[in-house]
Amino acid sequence: MSLLKKHTKYSLLDLVLISEGISASETLQLSKTLAQKAEALGYHRYWLAEHHNSIAIASSATTVLMGYIAEATKTIRVGSGGIMLPNHSPLIVAEQFGTLGLLYPNRIDLGLGRAPGTDQETAFAIRSDRMQAQHQFPEEIEKIQQYFSTENSTAKVRANIAEGVDVPLYILGSSTDSAHLAAKKGLPYAFASHFATAQLFEALAIYRNEFQPSEYLKEPYTMAGINVITAETDAEAERISTSLINIILGIVTGKRQYVPAPTTMTEDLIEISKHPAIHQMLKYSFIGSKASVKKQTKDFLDKTHVDEVIAVTNIYDAQDRVRSYSLFSEIMKELNKV
């Protein structure tokens, strides 16, 4: 009998990738369209990443994009996957998300991570004391929680617009460090297994075993990222997945580029995908027809027992992306009926 939880929520993470031949402006509009489609397809949340100084990623001003997406949708939750907190002042984060929370009540999520989301030189340009802030990540989270609390109304330093506003916090991570932290603070935990695969099961076990109930969350809540590329046939999915392989190759080799158009799956690309570094990053990449991806997804959920899965579809063509997310929605609806 399947151990898959009924009604496993499904969401998506958008890096707002810029494809070859597509302008940044067009890319932002395509993200808005994707969010509207995702809402209609039953996706629970639409999260946006934070990255800087990357030619192919347009999600550098995450909170601005969240407002753009929230304004264009009605019910889907919109959040950060995540805000890289050492890049920012906790006060400013509270003010920005408090504002979003007032404008779009009960729809805004604040996912927080401690990685820079860029190279070290750019990270220093963003905030010269970010290494100190990174070491103080737990304390910085507490500052945000304090700014959102109504008890802060008597403090000398206030984020007035955030006080009492309902914006749930989520801890994002790619290692066991974040699992310990999320458990200790009693906050939901999202693991970046769409690219950091090695410690997924260890991190989930730590979080569940060490979880301490809080005023924010009574029981552990787990989320995990997966790469999903679904098409009408296995062959078509394999073809459009060549763009993802080339994206990963660019990251590993330091040769960043716009998302390239798909090509025929060659022997060279197959060998590249088998390289240990790339193979490890793509471990939880479910590529194929609806039937193939459904089987892979069910196996993943049966093994991880996560409460929510976050799909990431980094491919070239916007219509292929919408189609993939549409098929994945069908998969999750069918699995939730089991």
Automatic annotation (TrEMBL):
Signal peptide: none annotated. SUPFAM superfamilies: Bacterial luciferase-like (SSF51679). Residues 19-245 form the Luciferase-like domain. One of its GO terms (cellular component) is cytosol. Coiled coil: none annotated. One of its GO terms (molecular function) is oxidoreductase activity, acting on paired donors, with incorporation or reduction of molecular oxygen. To bacterial alkanal monooxygenase alpha and beta chains. This is Luciferase-like monooxygenase. It comes from Ulvibacter litoralis.
